[in-house]
Amino acid sequence: MELTSPGTTVGVVGGGQLGRMLGEAASPLGIELVVSDPTPDAPAAPAVRDQVLGEFDDEATVRELARRADYLTYEIELADPDVLDAVAEDTGTPVHPHPETLRIIQDKLVQKRRLAEAGVPVPAFRAVDSADELRSALAELGYPAMLKAREGGYDGRGNVPVAEPGDVEAAFDAINGPAMVEEFVDYERELAVMGCLGADERTTFPVTETIHEAEILRETVSPARASEQVRERARAATRDVLDVMQGRGVYGIELFETGDGEILLNEIAPRPHNSGHWTIEGCHTSQFGQHLRAVTGLALGSTGRRAPTASKNILGDVDGRQPARLTGVERPLSTDRLSVHWYGKREVYHLRKMGHLTLVGEQNASAGGLLAGIRDAAEPLTFAETD
Amino acid sequence: MELTSPGTTVGVVGGGQLGRMLGEAASPLGIELVVSDPTPDAPAAPAVRDQVLGEFDDEATVRELARRADYLTYEIELADPDVLDAVAEDTGTPVHPHPETLRIIQDKLVQKRRLAEAGVPVPAFRAVDSADELRSALAELGYPAMLKAREGGYDGRGNVPVAEPGDVEAAFDAINGPAMVEEFVDYERELAVMGCLGADERTTFPVTETIHEAEILRETVSPARASEQVRERARAATRDVLDVMQGRGVYGIELFETGDGEILLNEIAPRPHNSGHWTIEGCHTSQFGQHLRAVTGLALGSTGRRAPTASKNILGDVDGRQPARLTGVERPLSTDRLSVHWYGKREVYHLRKMGHLTLVGEQNASAGGLLAGIRDAAEPLTFAETD
Predict the structure, then answer these.
(1) Do A1 and B328 touch (CB under 8 A)?
(2) Do B338 and A29 touch (CB under 8 A)?
(3) What CATH homologous superfamily does A124-183 map to?
(4) 8 Å CB contact of B342 and A300
(5) Residue B153: what pLDDT?
(6) What Rg do the C-alpha atoms of chain A give, in angstroms?
(7) Which residue among A10, A197, A255, A320 is least crowded, i.e. fewest CB within 10 A of its CB?
(8) CB A283 within 8 A of CB A345
(9) How many whole angstroms from its chain centre is CA B191?
(10) How far A163 CA sits from the closest chain B CA (Å)?
(11) Architecture of domain A9-95 in CATH?
(12) Cβ contact (<8 Å) for A302 and B327?
């Protein structure tokens, strides 16, 4: 295993904050990145070698990435597995994770079926392609339930709760396409585990508790406030999920912990994930460094936690769409043990992910103490209204 | 205090490994860098927004940096204070640290005089501009001693030991210019402290032990194996040094601990320094992030140590000058708690600094254990001979 100059180049479909943090992690490993993104000067641009301007699923754009790279990967599910397959075959540039994995994950129905077949515990679900099918399915599953578009949803988009029979028509109209309905999980807590498949090894990061509001991740804390038995179930589910995945890379695995301590799979991302941002400071290797090691075939790093760690997203708190100007940063910058991450997005809008904070505690820090500390540090943060 | 997109841009004279690590630290803070360096595709290039091609002391190059930047700084002492002064005055672009500080530090005699005047303990020294003056000075200071060129030396270059009266002529001939001679310090241990002057605050990083061989830094370990009394003397000397420095930024302060526990100043660098690379993983804020916070006027971060930490330089172990290909990296990449930093230099030669390793220990790790661990991890590393 060698390091050279210039180093291995990875072409990344997507140049958002994940691409930016991949760029930050690439440099110490001597890895160079080229990203593709349709937005000029995307968030990743200042942190990587170059950006190719183009849509995520545009074949010419992906070919240009492949021309410049030794490996291809993606940081957004809007990448097109057929395009990736075709480019990989024509150019001989390996794609990790495998496009087939992306295909499985993009379709939430196919994803759930594959995982259920592999023995991963999942909530009860049914395919539904009409309001009538939804009504029949809910006669079995019961109310309330969550209707999900099979493709294209993220951060809660494409998910519609169905509280009672009278909601069925409106819920299906909101999706109006191939969908699945899933039993409502009355969870005790949400958990996430970042797993990684390397060339001939696999690692998992410590189990993390995730705190959502309106289906958008707000905070994480690790270790999760779950029993060791529950955490081991989460790790076991992660191992089962990784068995289904093809191709090297980091996978973000979101889980429910039920009231009786069982684990149910929620969703999978075939890439670094918001619930793993805390690993940048909180673990010996970050999810971003690990992903790049995996994709390029380097040995994986150790994933131990340095100390209990919390993270908190900085979300747009404005109504309109306007230039991004975050005020009140003196407190987080000055807070002991706290790190600030700004994604460089030009515009802010309501609930857009603009950055995050990470607080690494003392060895004996409590989850509650960490969350109180990070909330206090974030309290003055607000986006300035434009004049 | 605000964060915006695009962020503040800093122009950095110098695009070596320090510029590269500044680039890695800039991105999370939303700061963009443009570096200047005469070597095309310098080590910093892939990690920053752009590189301006030009000599460190070339005025047109520095003007181009200023045109593109909100602040100017430098990561190499070969920057020219007169050029920086002129460009700052003409363009209104602030330079940190102040060029006057660079002027003081560039001339080792002026540096020592200023520090001695300010009460910083320094080894006895004399200005010497001829072999005769050197002989007279050593009649007072005694043998052995270290003759130093007043300007231009680093990593031991420009330093000539004078063991006995018979060496005087040859030693002065080797320098052949304005010089100073310094008493030989029979030190117990070498220490380093990274200090930082912010807009209206100052911080110091934990006291670090540095291990040199042939005047090139090989390893660091923090905390240093010195008594708390000695460490407090080192911190006090650092505070006194910072009182003499003008302008914001990080200063690398190298110290001797004498056999009887006294502290003597060795040298100062007006920039992040090799003895502070361990802070990237070992402290809550790294020396690189701290320097950028200081230069751009942001609040300084907390400088506490996460855990005992060692670092080890990866130096060229070849004789000729050849393309850089480092073999044996699987062991360090796989070693628990260890991070690899590769600087992306295209060519390797004897003792060139090509990268470094950092090992963050458990809370109770010993300096000896950390050094043994990092040496073991580094053991297989060797540069491949070219065919």
Answers:
(1) yes
(2) no
(3) ATP-grasp fold, A domain (3.30.1490.20)
(4) no
(5) 65
(6) 21
(7) A320
(8) no
(9) 13
(10) 41
(11) 3-Layer(aba) Sandwich (3.40)
(12) no
Which residues from A are below 8 Å from B363, CB to CB?
363
Which chain A residue's Cα is nearest to B360?
A284
Put simply, the answer to whether A342 touches B3 (Cβ < 8 Å) is yes
Q: Look at residues B142, B106, B107 and name the one whose alpha carbon lies nearest to residue B123.
A: B142
* Measured distance between the N- and C-terminal CA atoms of chain B, rounded to whole angstroms: 55
Q: Looking at the partner chain, which of A3, A325, A342 has a beta carbon nearest the beta carbon of B342? A: A3
Minimum-distance CB partner of A5 among B306, B337, B346? B346
* Closest CA relative to residue B56, chosen from B82, B23, B40, B78: B78
Please answer whether residues B20 and A27 qualify as being in contact, where contact means their C-beta atoms are separated by less than 8 angstroms: yes
Host H or E run for residue A173 = helix A168-175
Two structure tokens written together for B87? 């460009």
| Averaged pLDDT, groups of 10, chain A, 387 residues long | 93 98 97 97 95 97 98 95 97 97 93 94 95 94 93 74 93 91 94 97 97 95 97 96 95 96 95 98 98 98 97 96 96 98 96 98 97 98 85
User: Which pLDDT tens digit goes with each residue over A122-174?
Assistant: 999 999 999 999 999 999 999 999 999 998 766 667 889 999 999 999 999 99
Q: How far is CA B310 from CA B255, B331, B370, in A?
A: 18, 17, 6
Determine whether the interchain pair B333/A293 forms a contact, defined as Cβ–Cβ distance below 8 Å.
Answer: yes
Give residue A154's pLDDT: 61
Which residue among B324, B335, B363 sits closest to A363, beta carbon to beta carbon?
B363
CB A147 within 8 A of CB A181: yes
Please state the domain extents for chain B.
9-95, 124-183, 187-383
The Cα–Cα gap between A264 and A234 comes to: 9
Cβ of A3 within 8 Å of Cβ of B28? The answer is no
Distance from CA of B73 to the nearest CA of A (A): 19
In chain B, residues with a C-beta closer than 8 Å to the C-beta of A299 are 329-330, 333-334
**Fold designation for B187-383:** D-amino Acid Aminotransferase; Chain A, domain 1 (3.30.470)
Contact A370, A219 (CB under 8 A): no
- Please name the residue that has the structure tokens 């303990």: B121
Q: What residues of chain B lie within 8 A of the CB of A16, using their CB? A: none
The verdict on pTM exceeding 0.80 is yes
DSSP character for A200?
A: S
**Helices vs strands, H then E, count in chain A:** 12, 22
B343: which chain A residues are within 8 Å (Cβ-Cβ)?
30
B338 strand-pairing partners: B359
Task: Give the residue carrying structure tokens 């072409």.
Answer: A11
Residue whose pair of structure tokens reads 């001695």 in the numeric block: B116
The amino acid present at B21, given as its one-letter code, is M
Rg (CA), chain B: 21
The nearest alpha carbon in chain B to A44 belongs to B27
The answer to whether the CB atoms of B24 and A27 lie below 8 A apart is yes
- Torsional sign, CA B19, B25, B27, B30: negative
CA separation for the pair A218, B105 (Å, rounded): 48
The H-or-E segment that residue A258 falls in is: strand A249-258
User: b/e map of A327-357 (b: 16 or more CB within 10 Å)?
Assistant: ebbebbbbbebbbbbbbbbeebbebbbbbbb
Residues of B in contact with A340 (CB under 8 A): 3, 28-29
- A355 and B3 within 8 Å at the Cβ level: the answer is yes
Question: Looking at chain A, which residue has its C-alpha nearest residue B50?
Answer: A46
| Below-70 pLDDT ranges, chain B | 153-156, 387
Whether residue A5 and residue B336 make contact (CB cut-off 8 A), yes or no, is no
Q: What is the pLDDT of residue B151?
A: 87
Q: In whole angstroms, how far apart are CA A273 and each of A69, A78, A111, A303, A322?
A: 23, 15, 17, 15, 26
Q: A121-142 in b/e burial notation, b at 16+ Cβ within 10 A?
A: bbbbbbebeebeebbebbeebe
